[in-house]
Design a protein that fits this description.
The protein has helices at residues 3-19, 35-40, 54-59, 70-81, 102-114, 130-151, 157-178, 184-197, 202-213, 239-245, 259-262, 268-273, 277-287, 298-317, 332-347, 364-377; strands at residues 23-28, 43-48, 94-98, 119-122, 224-230, 248-254, 322-328, 352-357. With 378 residues, it is of the alpha/beta class. It is globular. The model has no long low-confidence stretch (mean pLDDT 95). The protein binds iron/sulfur cluster (SF4). Iron/sulfur cluster (SF4) binds at residues 28, 30, 69, 71-72, 100-101, 103-104, 231, 328, 331-334.
Length: 378
């Protein structure tokens, strides 16, 4: 199934859910948005995880300057131009305005204001300390209030706990799928689809896991194995194609659509011992030390996490991972830290390519050359 098929299939899915009376809540795809609360309230969470192109980026310039990150530009462009395969965006009932970064908050506010989509607010602290955790819990309760005002009934703790367990199980299965040794393009295609649909995709995910576990790459000595860190590779992006055309294979996605999502899992004992589901969500926020919306020590944590993944891979396969740090142009969070990340990892002997780009088609050739050169050189 190509992405166009996926998008039209997803449109049908959303239409059916709307006919059942469900409301759709969209948000820009990073970590920390409590999907479980949306699920417990009976909403469909719609993660904006679609890459852009020249037209989408250009269409956003009536609202924000071209020095906004290319992903946020494309999100605005999607709402202002509504290309054919994105008509499902007409079905969005609410938009979450959150503050993962400046571009996120600006783009979310613009989408809500100029495209007349009622907003829900969910703000996060950047720091991790006693007060920020209290603040996070306060925001969760406030978010719950906003949802309850819409649905007109209370969201029970039992319903939230059930949703937490459902998402937890789903993420465990995603992690299991992630660990298969298959082509990166196949892996990403299924991960993207799964994360777009959420736990409802679980039976399909399990059958893919079964199918691919019997068809894993046996002899990968000619493939140049890669880990992508930094910004996500969103739906409709051609980056993986370029890496594969250059002889590379992405074995791990250390990004929002990847590790950041399914590494955030609770142990069963933690779930069983915690009475209040909001405490579980606070705990997850506290433990999310590898996301870019986390200070202090994000970089140190990120370096040690990547180092661990690379070491484990070397021990398991005897192969060295090449690291591509994917930087969507004008992404402050990732670009600001890129020089330090590269320096730290290179000092430890890991090859790193800082690959900064936007979604313009004209860049394709240049990107391809840089990736080829990097994979050849190592
Ligand atoms: S600046 Fe980076 S973190 Fe913010 S919306 Fe863009 S890609 Fe996401």
């Amino acid at each position: 199934m190509d992405n166009l098929e996926l998008l039209s299939e997803y449109t049908l899915f959303l239409k059916e859910e709307k006919q059942k009376g469900k409301k759709v809540v969209a948000f820009i795809s990073h970590d920390n948005i409590p999907e479980e609360l949306l699920d417990a309230a009976g909403f469909i969470p719609l993660r904006l995880m679609f890459a852009g192109n020249d037209e989408l980026m250009d269409a956003s310039h009536d609202y924000l300057s071209p020095s906004t990150c290319a992903f946020a530009q494309s999100c605005i462009g999607l709402f202002s131009t509504k290309p054919n395969h994105f008509r499902f965006l007409d079905l969005v009932d609410y938009f979450i305005v959150s503050n993962h970064c400046v571009s996120d908050i600006c783009a979310s506010e613009i989408i809500s204001k100029y495209f007349n989509i009622p907003r829900l607010n969910f703000y996060l602290s950047y720091t991790k300390n006693e007060n920020s955790l209290k603040y996070f819990k306060f925001e969760l309760l406030d978010f719950k209030d906003q949802l309850e005002k819409i649905i007109g009934i209370e969201i029970k703790n039992e319903a939230l706990m059930d949703s937490i367990k459902k998402y937890n199980n789903f993420k465990k299965k995603l992690l299991e799928f992630n660990n298969l040794n298959i082509r990166g393009s196949e892996k990403l295609r299924i991960l993207q689809k799964a994360i777009l649909y959420g736990p409802i995709f679980l039976p399909e995910l399990e059958s893919y896991t079964l199918k691919f576990s019997e068809n894993q790459i046996q002899n990968s000595k000619d493939l140049k194995d890669v880990i992508i860190t930094g910004c996500s590779v969103f739906l409709n992006d051609y980056l993986i194609e370029l890496i594969e055309e250059a002889g590379g294979n992405v074995i791990s996605f250390d990004t929002w659509i990847g590790n950041n999502y399914y590494y955030q899992i609770f142990e069963e004992t933690v779930i069983n011992l915690t009475k209040n589901p909001f405490d579980l969500l606070v705990r997850r926020f506290e433990n999310n030390l590898y996301g870019d919306h986390s200070v202090p020590n994000f970089l140190e944590n990120k370096v040690s996490q990547i180092e661990k993944i690379c070491q484990n891979y070397l021990e398991k396969t005897g192969k060295k991972l090449r690291i591509i740090n994917h930087i969507i142009k004008f992404c402050d969070h990732i670009s600001l830290m890129s020089a330090y990340l590269k320096e730290q990892l290179q000092e430890k002997g890991f090859p790193v390519l800082n690959l900064e780009r936007d979604y313009s088609r004209a860049n394709r050739g240049q990107l391809s050359t840089r990736i080829e050169a990097f994979l050849e050189m190592v």
